[in-house]
Amino acid sequence: MPYQFQSRIRYSETGEEKSLTLPGLINYFQDCSTFQSEELGNGVDDMLAKGKVWVLAYWQIELVRLPVLGEEVTVQTWAHAFKGFQGERNYRMLDRDGRTLACANSLWIYVDLHTGHPVRVDQEVQEAYPMEPALEMGKISRKIKIPGGGVAREAFKVCRHHLDTNHHVNNAQYIDMAQEYIPKDWKIARVRAEYKSQAVLGDVICPVISAGEDYVTVDLRGAEGRSFAVVEFCKTGKTD
């Protein structure tokens, strides 16, 4: 059975339309898996004691609708695969009648804090998480294509409020940065994010924007041209 918790959408989590923001949705998903890990003895402090950390490599988020102010929701998560140094996890947000509002798949890399390199997931860590079948979300490449002819926008620096407990830019923050470049009237159906390197305090982020009729791709690059993250927003369920 998936791990879950119930909540109600707060005013502080909503945007201009009185609905949950996209970063707010991602925060709910992250909180859900964090709560589960804390309960299973694999929380933030436990992982630091092991000298290990999970680093997010990829998001695929499918949106039906974002819940509105005051709406009651249930947030669920479960692991569905471990392989070598990788783990995969699904998420789902449901309305009070059990209908799916949004769902997601994520790929995580298990990293040794001392070397900075991926390592095989410890057996006791794998055994701690109950496994459930993966959601059927369609076959989509985890490599996001960056179209040519992108337009560079004004660069900005990483600030302290962008950071998480690992002292890197939190994965939801990259998506928050990227959504500034999508049309205001868009109804987003899918978000994909590929995380390539970790930005830290003081790094400069140089956005390069590519747009089509039903997609916007935002390449968040460092000053030297290396991508920190690539985020793709789609208006439809189009696959590669």
- Helical residue percent? 10-25%
Question: What is the 3D shape?
Answer: globular
Which oligomeric form is depicted? Answer: single chain
Report the biggest beta sheet as strand number plus sense, adding barrel if it closes.
Answer: 11 strands, antiparallel
Distance between the termini: 32 Å
Strand content: 35-45%
As a whole number of angstroms, the C-alpha radius of gyration is: 18 Å
Number of helices: 4
Low-confidence stretches: none
Structural class, judged by helices and strands? alpha+beta
- Strand tally is 11
Order of helices and strands: EHHEEEEHEEHEEEE
Summarize model confidence as the mean pLDDT: 93
Question: What does the model show?
Answer:
By secondary structure, this protein is an alpha+beta fold. It contains four helices and eleven strands; from the N terminus they run βααββββαββαββββ. Strands 1, 2, 3, 4, 5, 6, 7, 8, 9, 10 and 11 form an eleven-stranded antiparallel β-sheet that branches. β10 (215-222) and β11 (227-234) form a beta hairpin. α1 (22-39) packs antiparallel against α4. The two termini are 32 Å apart. The mean pLDDT is 93.
